[in-house]
Amino acid sequence: MPPLTHPLAREYIGFGVVNVSFTHLLSESGSSGVSQAYLRRGTIVRIIERVQINRRGNTESWVLAESNYQGAASSSSGWLLESVLDVYENENRANTASKMMTQ
Asked: Which residues contact residue 57 at a Cβ distance below 8 angstroms, ignoring those fewer than 6 apart?
């Protein structure tokens, strides 16, 4: 599980692979955000920030994620419920997991 705070030594805290059929990247954490992008199973995102929100007595972990971060002209960033991701500390492991999910 990534830390709640951003490490000072790098610009991201890990990588996530979407583990559900599809999900939306939201404009803000929580269920009130507007969809910024649509992500499919196996999509790799870079995790920038992690927060926990208390909603009706339940704690939810949300991550600020960036998709298409690998030098793409149209990168999207937004919030995802952490439970829709498998989280990895490095990109190589995320790539391997993504390939396994999409075979």
From this structure: none
